[in-house]
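Sequence, please.
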C-alpha cells in the first residue's frame, strides 16, 4: 500500500472543495474508504463490507448513504472528472499563447495525477465498472476534457505555433501521457509532483512541435 493510500481519514485527496460538499460526515468517510479500497484491491474485488470496515462503520450503515457499491464509484468518478475538467477548461480559457496554455494545462493536470495518484487511479481506471447511464455521463465529461485540450492544440496550429498533422490524435496522446502518471508515480521517488508536471509540460510542447520548446529536463519518474 503506498503512502497516500494509508490515510483513510478526512476527505479523499485531490478535490477538497468538491468533497466538502458531500454530507453528512459519514457519507464523506465512506467515499474516502471506497477510494482507498478500490485503489488497493480493484472495484470488483472490493466488497461493501471492506468499505464499511475501513470507515469504521457497519455494512448496514453504508446503505443509509449509498444504495450500491457502484453508486460510490460513480460519485468518486464524477467528482474527480469534474475537477480534471475544470483544470483543463481553465487553461483553455486563460490568456497567453497556445504554448503557454498547453504547458499550463499539462503541468496542472499531471501535478494533480501525481499528488493524488490513489484517487486518480480509481477515477481513471475503474470507469468500466460503472452502470450504463453513469458511464455515459462520465465519458461525456472525458470527451469535454479532450475537447478543451484539443481546442488549445488547434489554436496553436491556426496561429502557426504548432506543427501537428492530427490535432485529435495528438491530444489523445498528450492526455494519455498525463493520466498514466497516476499509475506509476511514487511519492517516495526522487521527483516531486511539480517536477513531473514541468517535465511533462516540456514533453507536450515537443509533441506539438512548438517553436522554442524548452528541454524536458532530467527529472525521472521513479
Amino acid at each position: 500500500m503506498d503512502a497516500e493510500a494509508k490515510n483513510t481519514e478526512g476527505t479523499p485527496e485531490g478535490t477538497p472543495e468538491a468533497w466538502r460538499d458531500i454530507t453528512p460526515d459519514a457519507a464523506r468517510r465512506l467515499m474516502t474508504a471506497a477510494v482507498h479500497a478500490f485503489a488497493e484491491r480493484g472495484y470488483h474485488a472490493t466488497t461493501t463490507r471492506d468499505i464499511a470496515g475501513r470507515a469504521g462503520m457497519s455494512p448496514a450503515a453504508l446503505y443509509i448513504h449509498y444504495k450500491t457499491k457502484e453508486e460510490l464509484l460513480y460519485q468518486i468518478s464524477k467528482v474527480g472528472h469534474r475537477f480534471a475538467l475544470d483544470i483543463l477548461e481553465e487553461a483553455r480559457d486563460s490568456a497567453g499563447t497556445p504554448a503557454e496554455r498547453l504547458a499550463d494545462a499539462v503541468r496542472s493536470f499531471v501535478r494533480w495525477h501525481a499528488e493524488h495518484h490513489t484517487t486518480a487511479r480509481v477515477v481513471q481506471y475503474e470507469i468500466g465498472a460503472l452502470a450504463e447511464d453513469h458511464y455515459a455521463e462520465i465519458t461525456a465529461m472525458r470527451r469535454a476534457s479532450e475537447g478543451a485540450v484539443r481546442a488549445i492544440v488547434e489554436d496553436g496550429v491556426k496561429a502557426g505555433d504548432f506543427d501537428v498533422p492530427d490535432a485529435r490524435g495528438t491530444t489523445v496522446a498528450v492526455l494519455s501521457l498525463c493520466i498514466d502518471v497516476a499509475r506509476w508515480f511514487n511519492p517516495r521517488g526522487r521527483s516531486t509532483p511539480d517536477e513531473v508536471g514541468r517535465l511533462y509540460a516540456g514533453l507536450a510542447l515537443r509533441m506539438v512541435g512548438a517553436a522554442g520548446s524548452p528541454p524536458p529536463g532530467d527529472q525521472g519518474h521513479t
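The chain has eleven helices and no strands.
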